Amino acid sequence: MRKLTAKQKSMLRAWFVKNYDGGCKFDLVDKMDAETYNRIDDVNPCEIFHQNANNYLEELVNLKH
Prior knowledge:
It is built from 3 helices and no strands. The chain is mainly alpha-helical. α1 (about 5-20) runs antiparallel to α2 (about 35-45). The radius of gyration is 11 Å and the shape is globular. The relative contact order is 0.24.
């Protein structure tokens, strides 16, 4: 499966709420620690997880503003 699952979105949202400081909205997944990144990716591993996660986090920033 190439898309983020509901569980991955929930985990990304939880990370976002806890860690987003209102700064830059791009490449937020790069600010995530490796342990959290791997835990979320392991739910449904795919080669484009990084891109999908970045896109989802950017959507959350847009909703916040």
